């Protein structure tokens, strides 16, 4: 195999690994009953209530939160304080 072919395979494996790792994003709470979040950079909130490590009753509209995306699943991990 040529060096170019080997590098192409290595790059493909790196891309596959990167896709399998969780990604973290920031979001804003847009509704509380049910909870809805809008990921930073998106124009509309997601149409789902994400599972959460935060008690939903403590969230208010406008709260900033951190979310984890992994294997097509979203998890609200916590409130972000500034």
TrEMBL record:
It comes from Serinibacter salmoneus. This is Uncharacterized protein.
């Amino acid at each position: 195999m040529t060096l170019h072919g080997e590098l192409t395979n290595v790059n493909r494996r790196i891309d596959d690994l990167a896709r399998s790792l969780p990604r973290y994003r920031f979001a804003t709470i847009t509704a509380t009953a049910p909870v809805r979040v809008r990921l930073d950079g998106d124009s509309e909130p997601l149409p789902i209530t994400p599972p959460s490590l935060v008690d939903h009753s403590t969230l208010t509209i406008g709260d900033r939160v951190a979310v984890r995306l992994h294997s097509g699943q979203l998890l609200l991990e916590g409130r972000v304080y500034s």
